[in-house]
Amino acid sequence: MTREPLPPVPPRSIAVIGGGACAQVILQSERMGFDGVIWPVHPKGGVLGTHQVYTRLEDLPDAPDAAFIGINREATIGAVEALSRMGAGGAVCFASGFSEAQAEDATGASLQQRLVTAAGDMPILGPNCYGFINALDGALLWPDQHGQTRVESGVAILTQSSNIAINLTMQRRALPIAYTVTCGNMAQTTQAEIAAGLLDDPASPPSGSMSKASPTSAPGRRWLRRPMPRRAPRRPQGRPLDPGPRRHRLAHRLARRRRCRRAGASGPAPAFPASMTCRPSSKP
Hints:
The chain is 30% helix and 16% strand. It has helices at 22-31, 73-86, 108-119, 162-169, 191-199, 218-224, 243-266; strands spanning 13-17, 37-41, 47-48, 51-52, 66-69, 91-93, 124-125, 132-134, 139-141, 155-159, 177-182, 209-211, 234-236. The strands form 3 sheets. Strands 9-8-11-10-12-13 form a 6-stranded mixed beta sheet, sandwiched between helices. A hairpin with a 2-residue loop joins strand 3 and strand 4. It is globular, with a radius of gyration of 23 Å.
């Protein structure tokens, strides 16, 4: 069976499993205008806002299109196995303590392998990640604040780091962001697979992408070689396009340093534009 990468476009039903940050997932979904159904799952049951809380995944009315799993790592494995068995569309695994922690916990790598085995053919993001924001359809699995709003089209941001992703969504430039996807440990689904899925989306394609995917990996090379159906710049983050501008910036910095040193030795520093000011050097 071919595994479709997350995020599903668009999910019509979302299961939110756990407490704590899971309340933010529901709140952010409602603020974004998600018009599908949200099914909170927590052993205590009850009601959360306008949503009935189910005590078990098996009690849900149907298999969810997407799920946010915000419980501890051992329980996450069980939840992923149950969702896969139900035929869920995919899941975001928020928990940490897997392979990223193997320097402190020798069981981390084996737990991550168990997680992948439990998922089977169901796609998962993470573990150790925030999830995704789909601003085209107002669908997101995201347990924190963000700066995105509904848009008609825009770029896609793919990062391993959730912290970097949050900061990028807070930008105030005239750059519409259609998707933000964080990948965490990439135990199963890689950035290159997600990028390929986003570029293949005919209904609401992003106009570009920024990724930290390694161009030296096999999936990264396949992604960079893909034919471009639309004008979308694809460049792994931090990879310079041309060494020329770097040389010019270095020469500019060295010239500015020399001017500051001369000013410190012979008197007050000359008036530079605000962007070029620096302290006179204390070195002889």
